Amino acid sequence: MESLYNYAAVLQNVIAKGQTMYGPRFNINKDDKPTILKLLYWFLDDQLMAAEHGIDLQKGIMLSGPIGCGKSAIMRVLNSLCKPDWQFHIAPCERAALQFATEGYQTIEKYSFKAFNLHHPVTICFDDLGVETDINYFGNTCNTMLHILSIRYDLYTAHEMITHVTTNLNSKELEERYGNRLRSRMREMFNLIAFPTNSADKRT
């Protein structure tokens, strides 16, 4: 049984869209190609290729890799190519933390309990997980993303709420930042898809 998709053609479409969004330097090199293909298996809901590569289509994506390797850009490109009902919101983690500083716990509700559209859970991609600062709010220090992701985990198990994240952190650093409990839940919530550790900085 073969996949329904011509991935060589799909990759060319991704590159063309990326160049429209980011300029002619946008490209997919051979080292990054396996990572991009895994993302495409998920976004195209390709059950055959996803199963072959250990990707659970019921989970979200944790896209990791070194600084500047193109994590945020590729998620934005793929999002723009999705059907409207598959598109997701992109929320920088630092912005969410700064919103908490001014709005308090309403921010956490906004990205969790209130992230529903006509009773359907809203998919959100939290960009640059781990760079956000802990916020002091009326004398209490809050790890904003710890709270948001913990609640979205509960909503994932109860309502199939999908979450994506991009991060520069490795598994050890994630556990140090967010604790063993959330790190364990992340394994349930996300497919871990990683750029190679030697992936080139695309911003230079």
Question: What does this protein look like?
Answer:
- With 204 residues, the chain is of the alpha/beta class.
- It has a domain at 57-194: P-loop containing nucleotide triphosphate hydrolases (Rossmann fold, 3-Layer(aba) Sandwich), CATH 3.40.50.
- It is 47% helix and 17% strand.
- The strands form three sheets. A five-stranded parallel sheet has the order 2-5-8-1-9, sandwiched between helices. It has a two-stranded antiparallel sheet with strand order 3-4.
- Strand 3 (116-117) and strand 4 (120-121) form a beta hairpin.
- The chain is globular and about 55 Å long.
- The protein starts with 6 loop residues before the first helix and ends in a 10-residue tail after the last strand.
- InterPro entries: P-loop_NTPase.
- It comes from Chitinophaga rupis.
- This is ATPase.
